[in-house]
Amino acid sequence: MALALLLASGLGLAAQAPSAVPLYDNLGTHHYSITTSNPQAQRYFDQGLRLYYAFNHQEAIRAFSEAARLDPACAMCHWGVALSLGPNINAPMDPAAAEPALAALERAREGQATAAERTLIEALATRYASPPPEDRSELDRAYAEAMGKVVRLYPDNLDAAALYAESLMDLSPWQYWKAEGEPRPDTPQILAQLERVIAANPQHPGACHFFIHAVEAVQPERAVPCAERLADLMPGAGHLVHMPGHIYIRVGRYEDAIRANEHAVHADETFIRDQNPAFGVYVAGYYPHNYDFLAFAASMIGRSEQALSASRKIAELVPEPMLREPGMTFLQHHMTRHLQMLVRFARWEELLAVPAPPTDLPHARGMWHYARGRALVAQGNTDAARDELVALRTIAQDPRMAELRMEFNSSGAVLAIASQVLEGQIAAGQGKPQEAVERLREAARLEDALTYGEPPEWTVPVRQDLGSVLLESGQYQAAEQTFREDLRRFPDNGWSLHGLERSLQAQQRNEEAGEVRQRLERIWSGADVSLAASGR
Known about the structure:
mainly alpha; disordered N terminus; Serine Threonine Protein Phosphatase 5, Tetratricopeptide repeat; elongated; metal ion binding; 64% helix
């Protein structure tokens, strides 16, 4: 879709009778016919399901609730409310949501429904309990098994199949593949269901969304067709507009990732402006996530001003007091993205002027010490950098950091990488290349052990630093191997293309170096920084 058309779309409202809950005209056409005598209730139900697939769960609840208000006997309208109150791959279930979910299910059971609809309602009933247990794993597994039975009874119900796949994904969020790239036990069934839905309906927004998440870590190329369709399916749903970026980053299409997230920012900002939603998961998490992706994608092709502007915006979107709220401490990661981007682009003076985060925000404080240490090494002050390393290690080794969750990993896991990278850079600055290589190889090992997430919680891939140290110390073959491995993980990123070119030149492999140079010139054509000036 052309940018102008997308920008014009925003979250446009369809012509309708006045209601506290709007009907949008830019959420696509996905339809699931339900038992209701009220056409308007059907429209709100469809809107709720589309928003559910777009992970705007609170807005989905509003739509399903409006459908139920219009037709209180609509069992599936109440089912939609209960469904949206459950867990998903990005958020565990709030225990306080259990009672409202059970109440909605009770109304669903009392409503009018076909036999097929009742199987969905009864399957969902296995997901909730009162009081809610601390460990939901048995409930989540029971729901997945119940949805499997629904799909076996009604194999042509594509929405049931998509929801079955999602229920399996919820059992191990973001962990669908083993470290060596082999699928985990539920993954083959997830993929089989989603591919079956997509084959029958390539425009299914939920199946395409879930499929991207299911394959992005290991086999992203499988979801390229979904990525290329998804943004146009529901142009007013910011998170779905953003989702192609998950694949584009993984296959080296950084400009496409930038565009997807620029469009997503517009869609979400229009929604927030028009609807003024509560400052909850969507506004605090999904909306800044667009800027996070934008910053990372721009950084990989040398667009420093765009990356720095986006990373600065991430921090601005989350008020500092929110970082101390229960369940919101992971947002400290958003504070640190800008620090990592300043390191990425060697903005040393600007970095040293950043004030210290409060001590009760330990992850942010630790990353601040790391970033300052990098700046001091670059300025030749390795003694002062070592002081920053000591402060960083004090925080990183605090046992509480292992329990402090960021987006996908613990603060302790991320700060351990920071400690190793900074120690390696200090060693390199002191003329100890072998020690530097050892520390950076350990950092790369720790980076590899992180739970997969996008964009990565460690912003500057360690192998880019490692390859540079190997190159400067004359270990050209090792540098080449390191940059090639980084390019396998982050295809066509300019930093490692540059390093690979230099390592090939140093080995007198000029024809190969020239081929890499041609790729680099294409990738770096819109950059505003010089790779030579960066020292990489």
